[in-house]
Amino acid sequence: MAEQKEKVLSVENLVINFKTDNGILQAVRDVSFDLYQGETLCIVGESGSGKSVTSKAIMGILSNNAVIANGTIIYRGENLLEVSEDEFYKIRGHRIGMIFQDPLSSLNPIVKIGKQITEAMLINSDKLKTMYNDLISDDLIRYKNTLAKMNIAITTERKKLDLFRSEIKVKEGRSAADKLADRKLLKEKKAAFKQFEKEIRAKYMDQAREYKKVLEETEKRAKKEVAAYKDKVLAEHKTQEAAIRAKYAGDKAKLKEELARAQEDLDNKLRITKAEAKRRALKIMHEVGIPEPEKRYNQYPFEFSGGMRQRIVIAIALTASPEILICDEPTTALDVTIQAQILELINRIKAERNLSCIFITHDLGVVANMADRVAVMYAGKIVEYGKLDEIFYDPRHPYTWALLSSIPDVDSKQELDAIPGTPPNMIYPPKGDAFAVRNRYAMNIDFREQPPFFKVSDTHYAATWLLHPDAPKVEMPKIVSERIRISLEGQYDEQ
Ligand SMILES: Nc1ncnc2c1ncn2[C@@H]1O[C@H](COP(=O)(O)OP(=O)(O)O)[C@@H](O)[C@H]1O
Ligand SMILES: [Mg+2]
Asked: Using one digit for the tens of pLDDT, what is the confidence trace for 64-112?
């Protein structure tokens, strides 16, 4: 039976458009996927297919001209698209970390590496406050999210009303009767909105009140717990101080020194000091394979190679102990041997820290090294997804075939075979299967209707009309089937 794995992140029906000078660009068109605890999900596709936009939506860092037209991103039971800015700030970079393609763009060129790594730790340096926030965070997010949902629902309705009001304002040359009719309609709409607002508030406020009560209880308990911790720490310090005074009564210099040490101990228990942040930073620098961290700590980004810079970026992402790591083409800018080292590093850290990982790449060779599962993206949609073996040894979508044919073959020294044609202009996406014009297996229906997902196995789905029971049987390209045959034979040889 399939093992029950915990879902850590769920993207559902995500639709993201961009307002551009040339019109509305449809970057992400109804994307859904789950991320399970401890796995690496690779999202693969040509440039422009919507991979980065999807990951930016998860991180909440889309540019201003982006419009999230539909969808939810559920993390720990909460919709990240609805949580308030404050809450999102806590989650972003805290529970979900991200590494980008170009390490230079995420590092500040004029700030020493050590400072950049410790910065995030020192922002939350008050340990008592952090402890309190951690204790109440689940209940707080749940409560705030309920209010946010309510406000979003009301604002959306109000915007519709405002739009109508401005529409009738700009209408010109109307008869008095028309104006009267419009005014009457506006009045009705206003009343309907008032009614809607009342109902929505009633619906959400009951829930919110209940959550608030729970939150207040949790806050009380958390305050007590934090106060008890503080009392304990202070009491211990007092005892220690008394002991030191007794012990070194005759030696003034020694007494002063010991008292200072005790004070530092106390500081460390109450807040993250610079010294402790540095210790932690050096430890993480060591973890990500930076030689001589002590020396490197005081250097600037330009003093590091590309690979080392990417290690620093990974170190920064790790300081917050994230649960999910999103890697967006983290090795694309690096040369091949360095690329392999960084991939190995990410795999090791992922295993050691039990992270769940979304790994974005246009390179199926990288996919083979990283993925547990694969989602193939084309023109803003996922067109096929499955376990790594299912995608590599039993691919079903002609676009996946095309991608697989374009992997350069190390042994035969074949050139990389670019997929013929170009991706569509996403301001005018095609009506049917977006890949149809580049697909030599395309049927009439491909140009008319978007294919649904057809099931290949419990874990493997592909959106192509070729899987419809009435479709003609077609074979995948020889180059792909041959490669699969050879690599499968290779596997059996090894056994
Ligand atoms: N800020 C933006 N404004 C307008 N269009 C954008 C913006 N960001 C991305 N796009 C467009 O969205 C589509 C998807 O982009 P992206 O997710 O970056 O692709 P990739 O799969 O290469 O990461 C592309 O057509 C791209 O041009
Ligand atoms: Mg990208």
From this structure: 999 999 999 988 777 888 776 666 666 655 688 899 887 777 899 999 9
| Ligand nearest, relative to CA of residue 46 | 1
- Please count the residues of the chain: 495
Atom of ligand 1 nearest to the CA of 380: 14
Q: Which pTM value belongs to this model?
A: 0.79
**Together in a domain, 157 and 226:** yes
**Cα(482)–Cα(315) distance, rounded to whole angstroms?**
42
Distance separating alpha carbons of residues 468 and 471, to the nearest angstrom? 5
- Helix ranges, 248-375 (H): 252-270, 274-287, 293-296, 306-319, 336-353, 364-370
Q: Which domain holds residue 301?
A: 112-125+272-319
Burial letters 19-37, b for 16+ CB under 10 A, else e? eeeeeebbbbbbbbbbbbe
Per-residue tokens: 105:
């763009």
Looking up tokens 């939810």 gives 72
Per-residue pLDDT reduced to its tens digit, 9-44: 999 999 999 999 999 999 999 999 999 999 999 999
Determine the Cα–Cα distance for residues 11 and 106; give it in Å rounded to an integer: 25
Task: For residues 215 and 261, state if they share a domain.
Answer: yes
Q: What is the C-alpha to C-alpha distance for residues 423 and 205, in angstroms, rounded to an integer?
A: 47
Q: Please report whether residue 118 resides in a domain.
A: yes
Q: Please name the residues in contact with 281: beta carbons below 8 A apart, sequence gap of 6 or more.
A: 114, 117, 118, 121, 293, 297, 315, 319
Quick check: CB of 84 below 6 Å from ligand 1? no
Tell whether 209 is covered by a domain: yes
Query: Is there an atom of ligand 1 within 6 Å of 51 CB?
Result: yes
Of all protein residues, the one whose alpha carbon is nearest to atom 11 of ligand 1 is 27
Q: Residue 328 CA: which ligand is closest?
A: 2
How wide is the angle at C-alpha 145 spanned by C-alphas 141 and 151, nearest 5°? 150
Query: Is residue 335, in this structure, part of any structural domain at all?
Result: no
CA distance 311 to 354: 18
